[in-house]
Write a structure and sequence with these properties.
This protein is of the alpha/beta class. It has five helices and six strands.
């Protein structure tokens, strides 16, 4: 059955995921290394992993299956779940795709190189109401596409 996994630390759209999943009768697993308030919704499970680099990412990559949806801003995690034929969406509503993940990984590497070479910090754009709206639309589209794919198999 289709499940939604959320890379929970610093994810600004957890409440939106919960609302949309409830409407569709889907289970949600929010993975973090702590500090999140548990949901009263019985279809939302919280998994707390030990602190450490990529521990939550590793848990999600291990448990996500083909057709599941993963919400993450982490490009390497998105790449890992795409290889498992799961879907990946950024909190800004931009879907990660097989066609675009290589470029996203390359740009991430370039930005990391620039930071290391120059000692300057790069910044991400702030999260906006437009991003939240785009996320909701993309999540709905991905759920519908996953349901169609399940019916066709």
């Amino acid at each position: 059955m289709l499940e939604i996994f959320v890379d929970g630390d610093a994810c600004p759209v957890k409440a939106e995921v919960e609302r949309v999943a409830l409407r569709h009768g889907l289970n949600v697993t929010i993975v973090s290394n702590g500090g999140l308030r548990p949901s009263a919704n019985p279809s939302v499970r919280h998994v707390i992993v030990p602190a450490g680099a990529d521990v939550a990412d590793d848990w999600i990559a291990e448990h996500a299956e083909e057709g599941d949806i993963v919400v993450t801003a982490d490009i390497p995690l998105a790449s890992r779940v795409l290889k498992k034929r799961a879907r990946a969406i950024g909190p800004n509503g931009k879907p990660f795709t097989e066609d675009g993940i290589g470029m996203a990984l390359a740009m991430r590497g370039l930005h990391q190189h620039v930071r290391e070479a120059t000692g300057t910090q790069t910044y991400n754009a702030g999260f906006t109401a437009k991003d939240r709206s785009q996320f909701l639309q993309t999540l709905e589209n991905e759920i519908q596409a996953a349901k169609r794919a399940t019916r066709n198999n």
